[in-house]
Amino acid sequence: MDCLAQTLLQVPEIVEQNPCASELILLAHRMSAGFPSPAADYAEDGLDLNDYLIRNKPATFMFTVRGDSMIGASIEDGDKVLVDRALTPKSRDIIVAVVDGEYTIKRLYKYRGRVELRPENPNYPPIILKDGAELQTWGVVVGVVRRYTSRG
Amino acid sequence: MSAAPQFALVDVNNFYVSCERVFQPKLENVPLVVLSNNDGCAVARSSEVKALGVTMGTPWFKMKDLARQHGISAFSSNYVLYGDMSNRVVTILRDFSPDIEVYSVDESFLRIESVAHLYGGIPAMGRQMRERIKQWTGLPVCVGCGPTKTLSKLANHLAKKNAVFNGVCDLHSLSRPERLQWMHKVEVGEVWGVGRRLVNRLQAMDIHTVLDLRNASPKYLRAQFGVVMERTCSELRGISCLELEDIAPPKQQILSSRSFGVPVESVAELSEAVSTYVATAAGKLRRQASVAAVVHVFVQTNRFKDDEPQYHAGRLVPLPEPSDDTLVLTHYALMGLKAIFKPGYRYKKAGIMLTLLSGKSARQGSLFDDPEARVRSTRRMAALDAINRQFGRNTLRSGASGTAQRWGTRSENRSPRYTTRWDELPEVS
Predict the structure, then answer these.
(1) Are A97 and A135 in contact (CB under 8 A)?
(2) How many C-beta neighbours within 10 Å does residue B343 have?
């Protein structure tokens, strides 16, 4: 076992015995005296999924999807969806709406003054808002994340 | 040339109750209370419950009959959720004006005179703040504006109590007679900083309304009550005496912060400073026999150095359970610090604020409390204070992690932590 690996193995013990050791800093890369690495100027932070998925952090919330009513839109049971409350829903957006006090995720259709919330699964009927009823949008779905359970 | 100051006070209506409703649409228009730690007393009431005459701090067992009769729902405090929602509101407000003082978990003061024109003036800006917070977070807020902090607080009170304002009241945009008329309608006890004891003394001097206090002689007030009351009177007349972060922290929060002698750049040194401030504040907290539910940690660079990159940030960290334990408070303060720290800046100031305080004694005798754990904690704190005296602050910092599991008990009727836990997200089908 090389020296570094041995040191790392001992870290928890050292920390326990000697609190000051928690400030131990390990320099894991080789440094050459005199010439800094030319790659250092091009260092980037790497990819952050938050940056990719979230446009507006204080207005973005997550939900867990239950059921298969949106299976046609590739949104499956157990998926996490990102919901942005700041966006104004347009026709054909997937939204989280409140119907009779319950959350529902459906695709919004607006045409000729009619408002429909359509599932993406032929086994479910669309929800058609009655005349004069106001659509209660909770937010607009802007993304979906899924972890393959068989591997994680 | 600098314009005369204008302040806005933005305050979330029935904050805890409103947080619960955002995630449970069914609860809209349902009478609702949120109970204090270990389900003791009402610490937040929906307007329906207020209308039933339930006062703040009413013990749950005393309102059980009323609850059955009117279908009042009760929730245990969900500080993690409230802390996250509070952070969202503050983030949104920071976009409107960077000059912000987070006064408590649900209240912030902003300086707005230099930015209000971007929104079409002060009342329009107030309306946009209200609308944006409602749309982005689902939380209803009231906005009060005025040329002093005390007047913005009064304006906020008016906005909250009078439907005619539609949630936004700018005292400055009212005519002078109108403004004085409103001051005449509000009791003096509603003025910021005028406590119950002072009300009795003021009433004995025939000062009953806000207007009476405004019209009193500042010199006389100073002789009778001291400089604070004189200042309050000046503020009611539109003379700004209180800057942001300028007021002595009231008992509902304990602030500990300091400017550094030399700029600090490393997270290690900042951690040391923050740990020290927590130790100081936690000592004060224990002396007044309170527990804190939220730690607010903040850092800032020197804003007077134009040539240096500027950064300031703060984070409200809700505790799993209110605590007066230095170890627990330090742990969460450092967690918050880690989240906001950015390398490459020369920090001038750091600090922490303990908020959402409640009396420790109120926790005693409850079903869920573990007296042994409390004794252990008290002993631990005594030992800690001794170690602290002997070895200094570094020792204090080292023990901070790994103590959180002691606080395992939870209240029965807490709602899920909808915004911070993967396994507690709201479900949609």
Answers:
(1) yes
(2) 7
Q: Is B427 on the interface with A (CB under 8 A)?
A: yes
Spatial distance between the Cα atoms of B290 and B323, rounded to a whole number of angstroms: 8
Q: Which of B25, B89, B135 sits opposite A101 (nearest CB)?
A: B25
Contact between B427 and A66 using a beta-carbon 8 Å cutoff? yes
- How far apart are alpha carbons B176 and B186 in whole angstroms? 16
B108 touches chain A (CB under 8 A): no
d(CA B61, CA B33): 13
Q: Considering the candidates A69, A74, A91, A150, report the single residue annotated as catalytic.
A: A69
Q: What is the DSSP letter of A63?
A: E
Question: Contact, A93 vs A107, CB < 8 A?
Answer: yes
Across the interface, whether the CB atoms of A57 and B25 are under 8 A apart is answered no
Phi, psi for B194 (deg, rounded to 5): -100, 105
By C-alpha distance, the chain A residue nearest B133 is A59
Helix H or strand E encompassing B290: strand B290-301
d(CA B9, CA B47): 21
What is the pLDDT, as a whole number, of residue A20? Answer: 41
Q: Most confidently modeled of A71-85, B58-72, B251-265? A: A71-85
The torsion angles phi and psi of B164, rounded to 5 degrees, stand at -60, -25
Cβ contact, residue pair A103, B25, below 8 Å: yes
Q: Write the CA distances from B386 to B278, B389, B398, integer angstroms.
A: 16, 5, 15
Q: Is the pTM of this model over 0.90?
A: no
Q: Closest residue of B to A65, CA-based?
A: B428
Catalytic residue among A22, A91, A106, A130: A106
Q: Mind telling me how many Å the CA of A35 is from chain B's nearest CA?
A: 22
| CA pair distance B138, A93, nearest whole angstrom | 20
Residue among A19, A58, A105 minimizing CB distance to B398:
A19
Among residues B103, B78, B82, B80, the alpha carbon closest in space to that of B93 is found at B103
**Residue A80 is among the residues annotated as catalytic for this protein:** no
- Determine the Cα–Cα distance for residues B217 and B163; give it in Å rounded to an integer: 33
pLDDT at A98: 95
Under the banding of pLDDT at 50, 70 and 90, the label for residue B385 is low
Is B427 close to A65, i.e. CB distance below 8 A? yes
| H-run or E-run covering B92 | helix B79-96
pLDDT tens for residues B98-120?
Answer: 899 988 889 999 999 999 999 99
> CA–CA separation, B17 vs B276, rounded Å?
35
